[in-house]
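re the bet — no i am not wrong, look at it urself. input seq straight from the record:
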Amino acid sequence: MATVTTKDGVEIFYKDWGPRDAKVIHFHHGWPLSSDDWDAQMMFFVNKGFRVVAHDRRGHGRSSQVWDGHDMDHYADDVAAVVEKLGTQGAMHVGHSTGGGQVVRYIARHGEDKVSKAVLISAVPPLMVKTASNPGGTPKEVFDNFQAQVAANRAQFYYDVPAGPFYGYNRPGAKASEGVIWNWWRQGMMGSAKAHYDGIVAFSQTDFTEDLKGITIPVLVIHGDDDQVVPYEDSGVLSAKLVKNGKLLTYKGAPHGIPTTHADQVNADLLAFLQQG
């Protein structure tokens, strides 16, 4: 397996497909998944002649199941380790859900000169948890319950999430795909319970507001307005406003997991954004 070792000794698994001299797209997955969640995008773009890169977040997928460092700063530094090893400075970085936060923090910590453009899909910034300054956020008790379920019976929780709100399969008339549900379950169960438990705090309580304000490169924000996991109004809408050069694409009636449920639309929008300028 292809891996890079971080400064604190963590083995990060990555995929690197396509011609070495082609335009590069980095993909950053959501919680508690792996780089496999980008199959539809990576296959599309590598077949279009692009170079595509995606890694498994520490404690997720095939990366080391370390007990610590499950926070956005470490996540961002792990991205930097992959970029440095592969020499892929200047790539477009695309993040879904927690991966969107990872992209934003990477730019803030390591400089936007290393990133040409950024795409935030159903992403957690600016801040998920409800606070006095973020009254539209989700109550902390919701995330506390997530942690309790991960600790008690994550195998069941990792079926219930994709079978319900993640892909909108709990909506009237929705046609659920058992293959999609079990692929989500498979990816989740590959990872570490400790990493996933701590990761809930990382994606829900990290405030990216100032990070977003400092970004001047082009940013595309894609969000479904029926997202039951990362609420549309308090995330996508706000993120697009906070960055200097942001554009919001709203997918009407779409759920959280749109890279899967709306793969063709996402791929077309990513390609159009990549080719601009």
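see?? The longest helix spans residues 140-163. told u. also The mean pLDDT is 97. so pay up
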